[in-house]
Amino acid sequence: MTHNKEKLVIIGNGMAGISTVEQILKLTTRFDITVFGSEPHPNYNRILLSYVLEGSKTFDDIVLNGWDWYKENGITLHTGTTVSHIDEAAREVVAENGDRVPYDKVIIATGSNPFILPIPGTNKQGVIGFRDISDCQQMLEVAKSYKKAAVIGGGLLGLEAAKGLVHLGMDVTVVHLMDDLMERQLDHQAASMLKAELERQGIKFAMGAKTVELLGDERVAGLRFADNTVLEAEFVVMAVGIKPNMTVAQASGIWTKRGIVVDDYMQTSMPDVYAVGECNEHRGVCYGLVAPLFEQGLVLAKHLCGVDTLPYEGSVVSTKLKISGVDVFSTGEFIEGPEHVVIAHKDEWKQTYKKILLNQNVMVGAVLFGDITDSANLQKLIKQKTVMTDEIYDSLMGTGSCGSGAKSAASVEAMADEEIVCGCNGVTKKTIVDVITEKGLTTVDEIKACTGATRSCGGCKPVVEQILQHVLGDGFKTSVKQGICGCTTLGRDEIVAEIKAKGLTSTKEIMHVLDWNQPEGCSKCRPALNYYLGMIYPDTYQDEKESRFVNERMSANIQKDGTFTVVPRMYGGVTTPEDLKKIADVSLKYDVKVVKVTGGQRLDLIGVKKEDVPKVWEELGMPSGYAYAKSLRTVKTCVGSQFCRFGTQDSMSMGAFLERKFERLDLPAKFKIAVNGCPRNCAEACTKDIGIVGNDGGWELFIGGNGGIKARLADSLCKVKTDQELIELCAAIIQYYRETGKYLERTSEWVERMGLETIRKAVVDDMENRKALVERIEFALTQVKDPWTKMLNDTDTRTALFQDLEPTAQ
């Protein structure tokens, strides 16, 4: 029964309002709660919109509270419904559709709106803000038809929008009025390092540029700057800032200034009406960061539930963000002046930067770039106006005697209880400590399920693990069992063991015998099971094409316009004039849109019509380059001793041999090799899964490099003297990775999970095990066939795939 409960109405279904509701639900059941949301969705995490834009997450992945959560907690949810005003006399919340809901208490949590520059042309087609999922969906559609984009604003939202659009294949320029990116959060040095990193990721910049007009007729065609120069753009994203959404408050006669004015308990000028988050103004400040809205929500929840709480006195402004894979942090004062003493350290090799500002020896601000391990400790020290000492200096600048583990533990211990660990979901250190001590939780996954920490971007996972370790001490276990997907609680090793023990031979049999909770599996587990079966039974397993991703089914890369990219092999990056002529003739005959020289030293034929793909394969007469597959993609080489005056080893011949030997073999993820003829490293061995560097005495072998989103320098595994030993070691490494790697786990992650010493022992030191690994990979290699040739000889499959299939991406 709810008629005796107080009626609480939340205007706004975003992060601020719903996090406040979550806190209320932990404290009391006295409220009958109604939520109004203007969007047709449940509560989702706006911080992660850029991940949806770039394709690494779906909308479902960023939902914080699904439909069932509202039902389970007895919350009435009105989606797609905008509130017009609050009727104080009738004590009712009134929606634009005429619905009226009575209230005892109201929380306004309407957030903010994107600020649109007051310049001519902003009403043209192709001009949007970047604030919600509908903006994100519009950007995804635009990227299918247009190529040149401009993002106005070099703050967090602008950079995230630019990153997403680059991933969608657009030519993106960030236009920023100031000379430094994120000038409100970063100093010049950190901003310069961030800009350089983003430029490496493909983003262009127009700094110090003031946009005065958007050009074009009905649709935007470009930007005109104050110096009268023009930037061509078919799509413009406005990300120049936000302004509090005060519409409901103003329509209701509530006092507003820059935002909805509130006191220290979030009370507005209207009795029993409160405002929380970006829509409000507290002590003259409007906060646009996520941490303050959670701090406000916690105070408000306790106040409404009659629980003693200190008033909200404002937030110490700090920023902890991950921008395009780069961690940045700032707190307090970070732009030095004549009154400051500056402590700074820059490491160009590791791309890290740390700066601490002192005023009369008191710590007043800091900036971190690349490594933000000290962020919690710095925030606490600066908040407490700590005087710098030699001991603190040694701890923060790495000159003391304690190791990184002790340093992390000390940092966690120094965190205040109320400090927010998970910025995406507003989870404090105390919340995490309490569930560990009171509920006996022992894993990050259990904490995620209970509190929401780490469930969104995952950036706080290391800190959660440190808190676990600090609280549990010797009881902390670093290895945590995880199912390969939501269909099962079984991990990779358990599944492989069960396949072998029970003789399971198909994905359906595995799902049935091992009690999958989804009988058909999902897009995560089906390809994984298909790979594990093929790895275990290379000679007898019948590959399930339906369990592969679309590119692998088609043996070509599908593009966003429905055409395909065909990539023939060029062993070691070497080709012949005859093959080049053949590629040119076929490209002209079948109207190939672009022939692209890739970073892997081969040619992409981009824009082949679906029905022409088999004809292109046939007329090229070259093997597939496997650009679409979880297997060996390329072996990059320098010219080596054949031509280079510095070359000590024949890198071209070795690279071509390795590529011919290991092509077509299924692996857990895509795989790249580089072979250098000398230590000058022109083929970039440091960022490859296997990197080989020639020297006067033989070869040095590196593993686990990655030049992608999660960049990682390769680790030196060993040195060998002969070509034969090098080939044998490459075979053993690849097979060990095949047998122990998780599906879709790159070697960069595999090396960190397994440990370099474990791998070295298995493939370098243990000669008997190395020999067995080589024997198993040699047997598996006897079973592989060129997919293009196979498809050309299979008329039924070719017809079904290339004449009847509607192109879809998976």
TrEMBL record:
Name of this protein: Assimilatory nitrite reductase (NAD(P)H) large subunit
The Nitrite/Sulfite reductase ferredoxin-like domain, residue ranges: 558-620
Gene3D superfamilies on file: 3.30.390.30, BFD-like [2Fe-2S]-binding domain, FAD/NAD(P)-binding domain, Sulfite Reductase Hemoprotein, domain 1, Sulfite Reductase Hemoprotein,Domain 2
Record-listed [4Fe-4S] cluster binding positions: 638, 644, 678, 682
Transmembrane segments: none
Claim: Cell cycle is one of the keywords in the record: no
Residues binding siroheme, per UniProt: 682
Domain BFD-like [2Fe-2S]-binding: 420-469, 484-533
Cofactor(s) listed in the protein's UniProt record: [4Fe-4S] cluster; siroheme; FAD; [2Fe-2S] cluster
GO terms for biological process, alphabetical: nitrate assimilation
Pathways per UniProt: Nitrogen metabolism; nitrate reduction (assimilation)
Native organism: Paenibacillus tianmuensis
Cofactor descriptive note: Binds 1 [4Fe-4S] cluster per subunit. Binds 1 siroheme per subunit.
Domain FAD/NAD(P)-binding: 7-280
Residue span(s) of domain NADH-rubredoxin oxidoreductase C-terminal: 318-386
Pfam families reported in the protein's UniProt record: Fer2_BFD, NIR_SIR, NIR_SIR_ferr, Pyr_redox_2, Rubredoxin_C
CDD domains found in the cross-reference section: NirB_Fer2_BFD-like_1, NirB_Fer2_BFD-like_2
Similarity section: Belongs to the nitrite and sulfite reductase 4Fe-4S domain family.
GO MF annotation list: 2 iron, 2 sulfur cluster binding; 4 iron, 4 sulfur cluster binding; flavin adenine dinucleotide binding; heme binding; metal ion binding; NADP binding; nitrite reductase activity
Origin: domain of life: Bacteria
Keyword list, A-Z: 2Fe-2S, 4Fe-4S, FAD, Flavoprotein, Heme, Iron, Iron-sulfur, Metal-binding, Nitrate assimilation, Oxidoreductase
Domain Nitrite/sulphite reductase 4Fe-4S residues, every copy: 629-770
